[in-house]
Amino acid sequence: EAQVTQNPRYLITVTGKKLTVTCSQNMNHEYMSWYRQDPGLGLRQIYYSMNVEVTDKGDVPEGYKVSRKEKRNFPLILESPSPNQTSLYFCASSLSLLSPQSNEKLFFGSGTQLSVL
Amino acid sequence: QKEVEQNSGPLSVPEGAIASLNCTYSDRVSQSFFWYRQYSGKSPELIMSIYSNGDKEDGRFTAQLNKASQYVSLLIRDSQPSDSATYLCAGNTPLVFGKGTRLSVIA
After folding, report:
1. Does A96 touch chain B (CB under 8 A)?
2. Do the Cβ atoms of B4 and B100 come closer than 8 Å?
3. Burial B46-62 (b: 16+ CB within 10 A, else e)
4. Which residues partner with A23 through β-bridges?
5. Structure letter (DSSP) for residue A73
6. What average pLDDT values come out for chain A (117 residues) when binned by 10 residues?
7. Which residue of B has its CA nearest to A50?
8. What does the pLDDT read at residue B33?
């Protein structure tokens, strides 16, 4: 089954304790992205990757790191989490988003609800 | 910076009515637009994509795009309580979402 797998589904941690949220897709997609969703603010892009070893900042990259060492995986790393990073996080992937004419669909993971105390 | 604007709602319509959701965008680069539906606590799912001016129909859903006015809309005919969700508009290059409109269909 074609899917984007995100883990964990729920995570409670404390300020400053490094964490990683994993994301994996089995569709050979080139494009992958991380979003956070907060009430009243909608989906905001954190980082995205057009291909292996190519990553770029989205709208809210501060406090986050990503890596794209292989095509299928795109982990989100919080080196020193803070309470303002409490949010619902979504990983997403698409075959390609390389041109304005592209209408490729985004496939979303099931989300990770993160609470930083 | 590209922006996608939506009325946050909530938009309340009676069951069986037409729900009209609207979206405006600030740039002229995006050629494709998307409507995603998101139930509370769940991930967004694609309903419609549109990249040509005019209307595109799929079942009870119709997307409308007017590039000259930088406006895209989604009409839901014969609204059902199961349509109650938040609807997200997005343009591409790269994908940027509006904040979403919460729709409530009253039985």
Report:
1. no
2. no
3. ebbbbbeeeeeeeeebb
4. A6
5. B
6. 94 97 95 92 91 92 96 97 97 76 78 97
7. B94
8. 86
Instruction: Pick from A93, A94, A106 the residue to mutate for testing the B interface (most B CBs within 10 Å).
Output: A106
Contact assignment for A43 to B34 by CB distance below 8 Å:
no
Residues of chain B with Cβ-Cβ distance to A94 below 8 Å are 95
pLDDT value, residue A41: 85
Identify which has the larger pLDDT, A30 or B92: A30
Is B92's CB within 8 Å of A103's CB?
A: yes
Scanning the structure block, which residue is given the tokens 């941690």? A13
B94 vs A100: CB contact, 8 Å cut-off?
A: no
pLDDT in tens, B25-46: 887 666 788 899 999 989 999 8
Alpha-carbon distance of B95 to B80, in angstroms, equals 29
Residue among A33, A102, A111 whose CB faces B32 most closely: A102
Q: Of A82, A37, A33, A72, nearest to A52 (Cα)? A: A72
> Strand ranges (DSSP E) for chain A?
4-7, 10-13, 19-25, 31-38, 42-51, 54-57, 65-66, 76-78, 87-94, 107-108, 112-116
Residue of B86, B46, A32 whose CA lies nearest to A21: A32
